[in-house]
Structure prediction request, 832 residues.
Amino acid sequence: MKFSTSRAVIAALLSSAAMLPAAALAQTAPAATEDAASDNDIIVTAQKREENIQNVPLSILALGEKKLDQLNITNFQNFTALLPSVSFQSSQPGVTTVYVRGVASGGDGNHSASLPSVGFYLDEQPITTIGGTPDVHIYDVSRIESLSGPQGTLYGASSEAGTIRIITNKPDHSGFYGRVDSTVNTVSKGGVGGLIEGMINAPLNDIMALRVTGFYQHDAGYIDNVPGTRRFLPTPGGITVNNAAFVKKDYNDSDIYGGRAALKIDLDENWTVTPTVLYQEQRNHGTYATDQSVGDLQVQHFYPENRRDRFVQAALTIQGKLGNWDLTYAGAYFDRKDRQVSDYTDYAEAYDSLYSSVGGIAGYFYFQNAAGQNIDSRQLIIGTDHFTKMSHEFRVASPQDERFRVVAGGFLQRQTNQIHQDYQVPGLAPNLSVNGLPGTLWLTEQYRVDRDYAMFGEASFDITPRLTATAGGRAYIYDNSLIGFFGFGRDPNGPPYNAAGSSRTGVAGCYTTTGQVLRDNPTGTLLPAEVAGSPCTNLATFASGALKPRNTQGQGVTYRFNLSWKPIDDVLLYGTVSRGFRPGGINRRATVAPYAADFLTNYELGWKTTLLGGALRFNGAIYQQEWSAFQFSFLGQNSFTEIHNGPDARIRGVEIDTNYNSSGLSVTAAASYTDARIKRNLCAADDPTFACTGGGNFIAAPAGTRLPITPELKLSASGRYTVPVGSAKVYGQALVTYQSSAASDIRTAVTQAGTGNTVNPAALQGRLAAFAAANFSFGATLSDYTIEFFVQNAFDTRGELSRFQECGSCSQRPYVVVTTPRTIGIRLGGKF
Prediction:
């Protein structure tokens, strides 16, 4: 759908949504019903206490259980469309990096890149991992809370820009009950999908209750892997390959299944113990991005592609009272394993072109078999990550009804990642491969550990019954380390030392028993590998005859100051100054220096109003954020991710949300405007003056360049009208979302590998185009049963969610992750 059509559709829908409250006010029916009013009466725990959302002096948007069910929200992409301050990068489900309020430099999400800037919580436990936000299936969820701005006081290091919390329903003793829901759908230009999910709540005895959920989902594919060929130099005489063995329609289907169980144990009237366990597994096939140079929803890939993502969380929450103070312990262990096989043919295609003047890859490199014959230089990547996260938090809270209130506690967290990346060239000679791994051109085998320790506290004082001051701080220590191997092999009888002809990267840089690296001590004895599966170690610190992980540490304090005022009962005004941070870390290329922590300072004025007897809610905030020395990730030499500290950035914005409920009518809208720009030049090489001069340095992005990924304008609006028909309730519903265009890369200039030419990555990769999308549904509820017919992405919009390329020099084929095409289906549900 063209942008002009999208704009017309959204204008019409928003106009209709805007007129609905006025039309409702003219009706003579009673004011808000109890069922409708519940949308405006959400209880949240954003400040580690239970509070009505309208009394929380923070920019927070909450999606309650009823709204989640009504809008058929099942995954991350569904609910973030309703959160205007949230944007993200994604290559496929489960490989997603989240941003809030424009705090994005692009290029994040690598398994050994920066820690996230947005915290992601499941109940009390952080579950964010370096390699992407887990795509937790949304079912039997009480609410989703999205907190904008630094949450560094109560939530810590990975909540620099904001926090997203999924709060599940807990077991209760009210009785045995449950529900079952199912969906069947068909995707335009794709296949057939479906979902079945269910929940049971069961009291076991007077003090124990169990709640169990489970689901299985099949998402239909809609991207086709179509026939294609690739020809490699020289011409004639080069190698030609085709993808006939992998041609497939609806290439990118997924299967997702899992469940969650929680046991609530009431030890007495004051103390409750709640152990929970979550298991989820997702199996993706194919690719979720399209190559627009090939065709609509099409790619040409030449090796198998799949991903398996499995995670388990075991958590324990203990809540109780000591006198009239509340005590909470929240501990969890999160274990996530993923394995991905990816086609890397674009790399061979790009480098064959880059070195065309010397005969391409065949003329410049040494891709040969054991007999010395040139072979197909295409690669596939087999990558695995094993993430673990252990966290513990203990906190106390004074009585909530006192004039002076305190929340304070301690937190510790240890995260690890076992990184394995095997770049394979089938048939590559053993002496040209990584030592001991025939056919492996490049290997990454590393172990990363990130540790966080903190003490935090926040106090509020009611200066008057309507004026409250809050001050909080968090003292933190971080300690991050990395050790292992990266690079090519080394043939002791070379040159050539490996297929790339490299004499420096890989085994050549491994440590010998003298502390020298092998290239400086060719006859030396290599120290044993510190990470299993690698030939030796080239990323470490040598001391006293032994190898230790490279390490970076830091400590400091973040803060929040807030003043809130209620001039009348239903109006809250507030001002906030808050600061968040993200820890520094180690670059996995040993020759690149560690990167330092970055900091975000937020200045915010906001309002919350509840009008018309509770039927209308209108909230908003205006803010300015200063992002200091932001961490910037990009694909550097050998398409290897590097992280550097860039210049400062300034982010200004406005966000609003409104909700109206009356007489069967519910209207919700939310919008954000974000203006995010760098304040000084982004240099190709580190330069504290930001002049970007000397030593081949140059301006990669000039001062004033907008930060990438986040659209300037994003909004959503939904309307639902329910009428009684006999003993049933019949409803119609519409949801529309819109976002403006955004850059996919911050850099406007880089030096192209192998040529020395300067190119524009932002232009070559392309902008994320503006788009609007609309969902419609019509259904009925009779007693405990529901039937619904729906259409999602009704106008079959190709909404661009992310753009990326497979390697640092693969600009010949940028890929676009698009919204799922038009999907039509039926939902059936029942409660018992």
The chain is about 5% helix and 50% strand. Residues 1-38 have pLDDT under 50 and may be disordered.
